[in-house]
Design goal:
Length: 457
């Protein structure tokens, strides 16, 4: 539209000038005839007017009129490309390197917002050393092949960290940026965590279910065969076998439910929750729910709190209640009758303080450590029992699926061996940490710490 207006102005301006000048020349000629004394002055004015008209009609002098209204096409295109780059959901980087031998020569010259957030690059990542942001040797080798071998390829990339992520990395050289112009390559990362986790979930579920359900199914088959045979007319044996069958069926139901719950949690483990949860209220709800079960065995639930301010975190309330519920159930299950289970809530602790062993002479171990952030403050929940305790050599395996400590009795109901694995994956999704400490014969304490919710400015 601007070009059309400029063209119209260029076409109409000469016509307007002639409309004004021609009557002026005619008037000057008439005046010269009527007044001979002013003829030289009028003639000079006519010459100047005609020269000015000729000069104005020259294209070189008419250019500034159109140039003032022409937009800067190159600048607008660059700005539009930059905005499109920032809006892309996939991380995208432009990488430069001129020396094939000097690994430290590789630098990130441009990164969009998604890449800067993923790799924690300051100020868009401009001139940031590549090896400081990416340490995977396979990906670094692929980038070098794009820079110096002009080769395009796709590889798998797993950056590591507390949350296991799977990326598909595509690397290609930028056309027109070879040895003479300066070598540039583009790196695009695509998140394939969802598909990888879905595939792993199917495989793990089938493997775990087929392994863990084999024993109770075999027991049920044997009892059914016995009831159809010589125990058919024995009321006492029939009642005994039916009772055992009911326990096995209940265990299979809980096992399938826990496996499905764990699979769903692992599937979304890399996606942080967004809700607001008051952990003090969640602890209170769990105590109300588990109080009757503990009271039947004379076990008292004692809740204490330290620290000022709100105990709110960003999270999924149902999952966090499941965390506290599982830890409290375990503490009740392994506690002797007429003892105490202590639930301690501490607000505003640092990561190092949250992971510290508090019981003198106790063996402790971090079961899950969040990505390091010295500025973060956490809410720490510690559930302590006074049961048989745990030997140090058993601690690293506590969050494995179906792992059970040999020789320990767990009360009336046999667990599925998935409770602590579920706790670990939920806490990891909430970007928190998990610890255990114990003294054999005196009890164990499990701690879970979650980052405090930061109030919006």
């Amino acid at each position: 539209m601007t070009d059309t207006r400029a063209a119209a102005r260029i076409d109409l301006d000469p016509l307007r000038r002639w409309v004004v000048i021609l009557p002026a020349l005619a008037a000057m000629g008439l005046a010269a005839v009527l007044q001979p004394g002013v003829a030289p002055v009028l003639a000079a004015g006519a010459v100047v007017t005609v020269m000015a008209l000729v000069l104005l009609r020259r294209p070189s002098l008419a250019l500034p009129i159109s140039e003032q209204d022409e937009p800067d096409v190159s600048a607008a295109g660059a700005a539009l490309a930059a905005e499109a780059l920032e809006a892309l959901p996939d991380p995208l980087l432009v990488i430069a390197g001129d020396d094939a031998e000097d690994v430290g020569d590789r630098a990130i010259v441009r990164a969009n917002a998604a890449a800067a957030a993923l790799l924690r690059l300051p100020s868009g990542g401009q001139d940031h050393p590549l090896h400081a942001a990416i340490r995977d040797p396979n990906l670094l080798e692929a980038i070098d092949e794009a820079l110096f071998g002009r080769r395009t390829q796709s590889i798998d990339y797993e950056p590591g960290g507390a949350q296991d992520r799977h990326w598909s990395a595509w690397v290609a050289p930028l056309p027109g940026h070879g040895e003479a112009e300066g070598r540039l390559a583009v790196l695009r990362l695509r998140d394939e965590t969802d598909s990888k986790r879905a595939e792993m979930m199917r495989v793990d579920f089938l493997a775990n279910a087929s392994h863990e359900l084999r024993t109770p199914l075999a027991s049920l088959s044997g009892f059914i065969e016995t009831l159809r045979g010589h125990a058919r007319d024995d009321p006492a044996a029939r009642e005994k076998f039916l009772s055992i069958m009911a326990v096995q069926a209940e265990r299979m139901t809980r096992l399938v439910a826990d496996l499905l719950s764990l699979s769903r949690i692992e599937l979304n483990e890399h996606i942080p929750p967004s809700g607001k949860v008051d952990l003090a209220g969640a602890v209170s709800d769990v105590v109300d729910a588990t109080g009757p079960l503990a009271a039947r065995r004379g076990i008292r639930l004692k809740v204490t709190r330290e620290g000022e301010g709100s105990a709110s975190v960003t999270g999924d309330r149902d999952q966090l209640i499941q965390v506290i519920q599982n830890l409290t159930d375990n503490a009740i299950k392994y506690s002797p009758d007429d003892t105490e289970v202590e639930i301690d809530l501490r607000v505003g602790v640092g990561a190092d303080d949250a992971a510290r062993v508090r019981t003198p002479n106790a063996a402790g171990l971090p079961l899950l450590t969040p990505d390091r952030d010295s500025q973060a403050r956490y809410v720490l929940i510690t559930v302590r029992d006074h049961g048989p305790g745990l030997a140090r050599e058993t601690m690293p395996r506590l969050t494995e699926r179906f792992y059970r400590v040999e020789g320990q009795k767990s009360g009336e109901r046999l667990g599925t061996g998935l409770g602590l694995a579920i706790v670990k994956h939920i806490v990891n999704r909430h970007r928190g940490g998990m610890t255990v400490e114990s003294i054999v014969g005196e009890g164990a304490a499990f701690g879970v710490y979650l980052p405090l919710r930061v109030a919006a400015p």
